[in-house]
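Next up, a specimen:

>
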Amino acid sequence: MQVLVSIIIVNFNCGKYIINCLKSIYDHSKGIDFEIILIDNGSVDNSLPEIRKKFPEIRIITNPHNIGFGAANNIGAKHAAGEYLFLLNPDTLLLNDCLSFFIRFLSAARNNVVSCGGRLETASGAYSVSFGNFPSLFQQFSDIGFKIFYKKFYIKHLSISPPCHFDTPQEVGYLSGANIFIKKDIFLKMNGFDERFFMYFEDTDLFFRLRNEGYKAYLLPAVKIVHYGDSALLPNGSFNYAKYAMAEKSKYLYFAKNIGSASVFLIKIFQVVSLVIHYFGRYRYNLCKMVRITLKPSPATIMSSLRDCQK
């Protein structure tokens, strides 16, 4: 069978969402030659038997344990037969014929436009982070609170999670890893995601490297996808320190790799100052623990609650 698009989904205990995600793909992808490759990262929620029963045509590759979001996507890309890759989170729902939108856009775009993504929404229809500017020291400094003095400039040029205030395709820095439509040959040329990022910032790093090679990415606001995501809070309402530690560790790797090792020292200072200033904010964090994680994310802390830290 001729395949135009290879949809790659990384599953890690997402049985709560993935069946509806798969149904939405088939409901909204009529007339498109596509395949679905599911990479399972050692799920223990019994989601695979149901997937095999309801979607026997899906290609499933199983890993004995969780090897990380980027590494699993890289495996899927190597097995893909499509001209395009659509990297899609399992906790999503397609709301329209996004594959047609993406294919038409990239087919008509200049050769250096190699990737696009859709507008992510919450289950209630509110905007969810879909794109952003690349992280920088100025952005980290601004996030302490100084951004209130140059709010418009910050949103347009610095924010790593700006709102989507446009109705037509717009060039962006990076696209959320929850939905990335990209030319397969370019993804493979870039060696995919850097697998040192277990989770978080692997998408930002990929697009930073793409930009350095002269490639561009666009957000298509007409394409709408529900992204349920995971709250930073655990079911009992406590803060997910493991998730926070993992995000911080990936952020430090991103800065060390793309900006310089000295930048990590500065952003740790910015983060500690920010934590102290905002201690009485929304979640009333345990300040000492947050500062300790910020200064040195602990692998033990991360792995102990990894099951609660899904992309």
